[in-house]
Amino acid sequence: DAKTTQPPSMDCAEGRAANLPCNHSTISGNEYVYWYRQIHSQGPQYIIHGLKNNETNEMASLIITEDRKSSTLILPHATLRDTAVYYCIVRGDRGSTLGRLYFGRGTQLTVWP
Amino acid sequence: GAVVSQHPSRVICKSGTSVKIECRSLDFQATTMFWYRQFPKKSLMLMATSNEGSKATYEQGVEKDKFLINHASLTLSTLTVTSAHPEDSSFYICSALLAGSYNEQFFGPGTRLTVL
Question: Which residues in B lie closer than 8 A to residue A46 (C-beta atoms)?
């Protein structure tokens, strides 16, 4: 079962920052927060992941609260091509759960020109 | 990033026939692959974990005799939908696990199955 809660949809103007929230209040100490996105009729694409520290890569930044119960994915300068469904996933990386991803409903981000 | 391919990308078949979908990791070896299905406007649902050289592990509610998984090599997993029916029509997506410090998972482009 998905252990995350996300708003079903968000809008963002092109060129502005898109901030996508995610609640994961039942996250365990050894579980990571992963973000993927899926453009219509394609396979999901990895964006970023983190454990407790904030992370940044060429695609996005991930801000995780100190209590790890929520996080925010930030796309600093959204473009039309960022329109997609964004999934926040909590994932264990040990033992029998290694690699398994349980997708929630995600957030449909629409970037407007 | 690593590349995962799926074949075919689209398939239309008659009810009662079996359909095989291939998932390949093109530039890395994957001891673990995963199969998902996705209905229109719904999220991805994990069906099974495919382990090279051993039996697949199916998620609760997924019929193992209906969805046969074979992971015969480190770069290939196959999903066979046996005796397909219209309700099996869906988007099937595979992913491959790149073992390492982050255990990153790479997804294929998906296969659209339509059963008439």
Answer: 1, 104-106
